[in-house]
Amino acid sequence: MQSYRLTINDDWFYLSGDYNVSALKAAMTAAVHSGGGFVDIFSSLRAQTSLLITAHSIVKLEAIFADDLPDPIDTTPPLGHSYIDDDYWLD
Known about the structure:
This protein is an alpha+beta fold. It has one domain (about 1-70). Helix content is about 15%, strand content about 35%. The chain has a 3-stranded antiparallel sheet, with no helix packed on it. A two-stranded antiparallel sheet has the order 3-4. Strand 1 (about 1-10) and strand 2 form a beta hairpin. The longest helix has 13 residues, at about 20-35. The model is unreliable at about 80-90 (pLDDT under 50).
């Protein structure tokens, strides 16, 4: 089964094979043409993320096999290199 890996700058997101990639591309293109805007995505683990897409964003969309998706039980974070640790607080 085919899935997708979306990379925005240095962060990556796994998308399910039934993700509407055409609508995602259209939303990102519209955001760039309007000078920048937020685009919402849902990862394969159903985590919702809002991404600020601008003309300076580096975007890569790869078709991958579902076998290459990380195991949800594994310690691999669902969202690229950026994730929040459990021991944080805001002042």
